[in-house]
Amino acid sequence: MRLLELKKSLIYDSWTGPSDGEVAGVSHNSLKIRENSIFVAISGYNADGHDYISDALQKGARVIVSEKYVQLPFGITSIITKDSRVALAEIASIFYGHPSKDLTITGITGTNGKTSTSLLLESILKAAGFETGVIGTIGYRYKGHFLPALNTTPDALEFQKLLRMMADDGVTHVVMEVSSHALSLHRVDGTSFDAAVFTNFSQDHLDYHKTMDAYFLSKKILFTHILPESSKDTITVINIDDPKGVEICRGNKDKNITFGLNENALVRPVYTDILSSHGLSCRIKTPDAYISVRSNLLGKINLYNILAAASAAWGLGVPADAISKGIENLSNIPGRLEKIENQHDILALVDYAHTPDALQNVLSLIANLNIKRVICVFGCGGDRDVLKRPLMGKAAAELSDIAIITSDNSRSEDPDIIIRHIIDGISKTGKNIISPDDAIAGQTGYLIESDRKQAIKLGVKIACAGDALLIAGKGHEDYQITGNKRIYFDDREELKKALSEKSYNDTYHEDVLFALRLDDIARAVNGLMLNIPKDCIVNGISTDTRSICRKDWFVALQGENCNGNSFIETAFKKGVSGVIVDDTADLSSSAVKFSPVLKVKDTTMALGEIARLWRIKFNISVIAITGSNGKTTTKEMVYSILNTRFSTLKNEGNLNNLIGLPKTLLKLVKNHRAAVVELGMNHAGEIQRLAAICKPCIGIITNIQAAHLKGLKSLDNIAKAKSELLTEMGHDDTMILNRDDPYFEMLSELCKCRIVSFGLSDDADVQGVDITSNDFNNSHFTIRSKKGSFGVVIPLVGEHFVLNALAASATALTMGFNISEIQEGLLNSILPPFRMEVIRLKNKGYTVINDSYNANPGSMRAALNTVENSAKTGRIIAVLGSMLELGNDSRSFHKDIGRDIARGRWDILLGLGKYASDYCDGAVAEGMNGNDTYVFTDHTTLAKKLTELVKPEDTVLLKGSRGMKMEQVLELIR
Prior knowledge:
Elements: H1 3-9, E1 14-16, E2 25-27, E3 37-40, H2 53-58, E4 61-66, E5 77-80, H3 84-95, E6 104-109, H4 114-127, E7 132-136, E8 139-142, E9 145-147, H5 156-168, E10 173-177, H6 180-184, E11 195-198, H7 206-209, H8 212-226, E12 235-239, H9 243-249, E13 256-259, E14 268-276, E15 279-286, E16 289-295, H10 299-315, H11 320-329, E17 338-340, E18 347-351, H12 356-367, E19 374-378, H13 388-399, E20 402-405, H14 415-427, H15 436-440, E21 445-448, H16 452-462, E22 468-472, E23 479-482, E24 485-488, H17 491-501, E25 516-517, H18 518-525, E26 528-530, E27 537-538, E28 541-542, E29 553-555, H19 568-573, E30 578-581, E31 597-599, H20 603-615, E32 621-626, H21 631-642, E33 648-650, H22 660-665, E34 674-678, H23 686-694, E35 698-701, H24 709-712, H25 715-722, H26 724-727, E36 734-738, H27 744-750, E37 754-759, E38 766-774, E39 778-785, E40 788-794, H28 799-814, H29 819-827, E41 837-841, E42 846-851, H30 857-870, E43 876-881, H31 890-903, E44 908-912, H32 916-925, E45 933-936, H33 939-949, E46 955-959, H34 967-973
Parallel strand pairs: 2-3, 3-4, 4-5, 6-10, 6-11, 7-10, 11-12, 12-13, 18-22, 19-20, 19-22, 20-21, 28-29, 29-30, 30-31, 32-34, 32-35, 33-34, 35-36, 36-37, 37-38, 42-46, 43-44, 43-46, 44-45
Antiparallel strand pairs: 1-5, 7-8, 8-9, 14-15, 15-16, 17-18, 23-24, 25-27, 26-31, 38-39, 39-40, 41-42
Helix pairs in contact: 3-5, 4-10, 4-11, 10-11, 12-13, 13-14, 16-17, 18-20, 20-23, 21-28, 21-29, 30-31, 31-32, 33-34
């Protein structure tokens, strides 16, 4: 770098000595100075750099930057500035060629959630195809390079050097955590950010900042000083559920992208399901799209992190589909509610929570999951904020059943003194110290174990099936600091080891987990018990040895592609309590011969019977849904409404058959007040068996359409198969039927219980009127019922979705739900992927409606009509895969759809698969120009042609049967 360049750009008070020539390096450490370098003298906390100027000169420093006058030899350049730290940041940026100008940089600040938000945003940017770099607590990394992090945000010189390396290596986007220390110490001054994110604010780092006001002012610097000085068009992303976020927003209204649960937030969820120990789902509303999200991350804490990352991504112009995909791709964040898998049915978690607010949030999240007890192992760091210690003790005592207080980087302090400070907070809650035996026996209170390794072992010893065990404070960190020694220590490794060494504890909480007597199961299935101990209790059921737990009984299912008998020995090697097999099983091996076995005629039938026995233990409302179309949507809507009042179980994905439904029902626990399940079928008799298993008190038949004709042959047979649900409904039960369906009268005549009808016709008990839609975003309509009329909004477009909402509303009204609960539940409904997903490809200018989950003639017409009625600009293009399992009339069904397309306002038709030509033949026969119809046999060729044909402002519908995998077209055209 030439000195003249520095003189032109740097802000300084005085410059004496030469102002031209080259300098070879920059440092604020005299030990690192080399010939022709710049030495920046900084007044630090432990040393004053001005005292080392002579050392720097001896090593060849040519330029001295200082805050005060120093007598220097002739020929040495002296630069005096008000703040050497600011100067260092500016010099570093100039020296490395202003690397931030070559990158898109997002800075994230706040007390909690910085790391999680940064990794979520990184995953989103990767899904959008960008080359990313990350700078933060866990480390600095880019394109296969990894550097350990000494600080969350590196010092100014290392920071600018790192940005330059990233830019030179082809990185396009950098996501970084910006700590309050970094902001107050000017480490990121001189950096041109593109976006700044504020996550939240609570107590931390008062050992450094001294007061909360000073701490917040440091955070605020990113928005009041750094971002305004950027040379780019910038955005701010602010959590307005936090009062400090609202404060940051003031004076910056034109640039703010606000997020939160607040209805005034620009980006907010319109649906959330955050109470599962398996992850969360939500539907996020942005100004121009709805984004459906599923994540393995847990709870409300991560919902906020997801909102922050999604908001930043949206502000940076990332498409909605990449946002959704990126969030889903991130399955784990190191040390942030990181699950440690084990065979003891313990929800074992490691988290970085080391502030009162963070610990309170994590424990609150865990307490809302389906667990028995919360056990928390935590400590507080030495030589750090003393005031937070009693606050953390109070939070742990109030929100966990058992708190184990231990050490956490005691540094120069006595661990016992730190622990006493924590106990000061616990004492205010009334919790008492207890012994390990008391804790194992079920008493609540706190224990003390200053050795962190032993404390983790103690937590594992106390925990049993159904409990949650949280190891808090260190998260991803792999060290402990005691005195002046830094030793290797990783909470995750210690917890894994302790769990692996834990002896199998047969103490299960029967009010939470599964428990049935084996002799009851044997009587129900007419089974033969071999080598069964007296009064045997079955504490778990599994059909997969890959995820089996030691307490489980293994059910050896027989399928087309897998024979469960092949895994019996594997199951016993993994320590299962017993197996359920059919007569074809070989029980002669030494591993099986003398082990507990229940022999049955049909293991699939036995699985269903076990689920039925478990279901009848619960006095809950079970809603069973069947029909040709709309089962999943209706299920999700019912679930969303019911969840506004109480905990509800639902079947996930395609778990709706003779194996999937039992697996769902076996997840029932004591706090469930209802279950909503869909019943699928391929053959006659299946619905009746499924209904017998789940024993519904409310049944829903959405419609009767042409589906599964290959097995059922005719619509009448489909109607009869669906009507099997009615045979399992008693006089006190309720059937919800579609008044607009041609088979309504037939189904009504078969029904022996109360009927509530829904539909658009005037004689429906629950009627939908005045339907309007807003582009592809939502539908507004009025529901008329005997309990009054009220308006609702659903985040979906199409008459078929309105009918699903009416069925769900009829169910809720039958169960006594009020209007506001129905309105909230419908508005917050979320669909699984590939169902009328609106994907706006901003970089290409057109919209794709991805309805590729499945197709039959009825659902195909519904999708076609919805797109016709909702697309306001450009052309509409139908990209249709073949409809499968329609039997002998398959070709005529496809030709009929082609005729419908020709009668409508469709501009182009592209067909894929066996019946693609029938779509096109039907369209041409009805008058569509043959030049606008195309037949393809593979996704790649179709996608290539579609890319040639589509124009900005067009709307493309993707739809076909599941076997056609039409979503692959979307991946190819992105």
